[in-house]
Amino acid sequence: MRIAKIEVDPEMVSAKPSNGLHWRTRFDFAVSENGRAGLYSSKTKKVVEIDECSIALKDINSSEIFSNKWNGSDRVRVAVSSSNQLNISRGKKTIDGPKKIREVVGDNIYDISPQSFWQSHIQAPSILSNLAIDFMKLNPGDIVCDLYGGVGLFTMHITKKIGNDGHVHLVELSNHSVRDASKIFKDYNNVSIHRGSVDRKLPNIDNIDVIVLDPPRSGAGKIVVDQIISKKPRAVVYISCDPASLARDAKFLQDSGYELEKINAIDLFPMTHHVECIVRFIPSAN
Known about the structure:
The chain is α/β, with parallel strands linked by helices. Helix content is about 20%, strand content about 30%. It folds into 2 domains: about 10-15 and about 120-285, Vaccinia Virus protein VP39 (Rossmann fold); about 25-110, no CATH class. The longest helix is centred in the middle third of the chain and has 13 residues, at about 125-135. The two termini are about 20 Å apart.
């Protein structure tokens, strides 16, 4: 990581489809002055009307998104679930399809609002879940924090590793995601959901063995990293969609006694310059 001046040799993980097309399950389309769906031209507010999007799932392109005329300026949000449900919404209102869509990851089921965060690449939920579990190296009875946990993609996988004697603390700010997670985990005795920002909720959670975090593109930042370090977890698993903010936070961790043990880079944004990374940090031996 050039920014952090940390030497790394990431293992590369590929994702299908290999041609880099038709992978994206979620889109927010802008609406032009003509009432047509489109995308913003690079670094402008100009809406370019389109007939199809090459990286969108074929179900999105075969819908009526691009042929309809849309009134108003609200973006047209479209989501296709792994169970082939299509939802079209504007603002907080569903205008076509089910109000909740079902995502299936392995044998785990998540019924979620289209407004809740979900990974956009069709393979991302399964790839990231498997890697996160591998990187965390969990034991039965562990206490785990799932920070920026969304609807609980990782939480559900974690519960199966830690058993009834362990516990997961899911911390999430989004009201949509918290409502979904509360319903998903209402019968789980080993899950607690904390609604609020990580920097306000994490200080109140103690005896943490492992922390996993998947922050927004801006990263966790020094305040949260300092709080993580103060909990002295035996491992920190950091998932990032922005190498620059990851590098900054990795330097904070390194300067405070945690070393980067393993890193994978995953091509979850084909045809773009973005890349997803997952990193395992452990206390330094020194």
